[in-house]
Design brief:
single chain, 272 residues, mainly alpha, Helix Hairpins, 2 domains, 10 helices
């Protein structure tokens, strides 16, 4: 899209210069008012054809030929690049839509379960919990404020050894889901979600390579919990972005997501 915008700017700049030159030239050569000279320039460049106003002098006709040679190509270049820009933006919107469908599948099948697990084992969350209760009237400013509230937050997840074993089994059961997500080419365009998937997959591999946690030293358990906290931090930030998208595009999905907010102790799927 950047190259299209650059080409469009160049063509627009040239077209403006052509129109200014033509307007001034016709005004001086054909002794026309500025409005008529501008009109004559535009219909020449746009290849509409002459009607009530035409160049009558040799110099005016020569100027018309120059405008046709230079201006018509420039005008068509502007039209072509504006069309490309529109189509490119439309394609980006479709890709963004598919990306958020992928994010929705992840949270529906795996992410929300992980969030609930980590939140329930986070002893420091009470000071942050209220800032993450998404309201129906939240604006982009509210979401930005919620994300900023996470800056500097010391994530803490206290999982026991049996908890880690259960987490390993759950993540292993989602191997097929992870494989399908990673095969989708669109996720590479969503860097934060890609980082989230990498963090969760790394956590899964760390757990699977150990297999059992009964005899592991505390230093190794601390290392694994560090991987848990990394995945936890990505989960929250990406969840906020997903909630913002649902609110803007799919109010009915946003309603359900808000009523099942994992940070809200009073959240209930039942509409009251």
């Amino acid at each position: 899209m950047h190259s299209i915008k650059l080409r469009l700017k160049i063509f627009l700049g040239v077209l403006i210069m052509v129109i200014i030159t033509g307007t001034v030239g016709f005004s001086l050569i054909e002794h026309l008012p500025i409005s008529d000279a501008f009109y004559l320039t535009v219909i020449t460049v746009s290849t509409v054809g002459y009607g009530d106003i035409t160049p009558v002098t040799v110099a005016g006709k020569a100027l018309s030929l120059c405008l046709i040679v230079i201006g018509v190509g420039t005008f068509l270049g502007v039209v072509a690049n504006m069309t490309d820009l529109f189509l490119d933006r439309r394609e980006m919107e479709l890709r963004r839509e598919k990306l958020h469908i992928i994010v929705g599948v992840f949270y529906s099948e795996c992410g929300m379960r992980l969030l609930h697990m980590f939140i329930s084992r986070d002893p420091k969350l009470d000071g942050l919990r209220e800032k993450l209760i998404v309201a129906e009237n939240w604006t982009a400013h509210d979401y930005d404020r919620a994300v900023k509230s996470l800056e500097g937050y010391e994530y803490s997840v206290e999982l026991s050894r049996p908890d880690l074993a259960g987490l390993m089994d759950f993540l292993n059961s989602k191997s097929g889901l992870f494989l399908r997500l990673m095969e989708n080419p669109y996720i590479l365009e969503h860097e934060t979600f890609t980082d989230l998937l990498r963090a969760v997959l790394h956590l899964k591999e760390e757990l699977l390579h150990r297999g059992t946690f009964d005899d592991l030293p505390d230093t190794d358990i601390k290392h694994v919990l560090g991987d848990v906290k990394r995945a936890y931090s990505f989960l929250i930030v990406e969840w906020l972005d997903y909630m913002s998208y649902l609110q803007s595009h799919y109010p009915y999905l946003f309603s359900l997501a808000r009523r099942t907010n994992p940070f809200d102790r009073e959240a209930s799927v039942v509409v009251k």
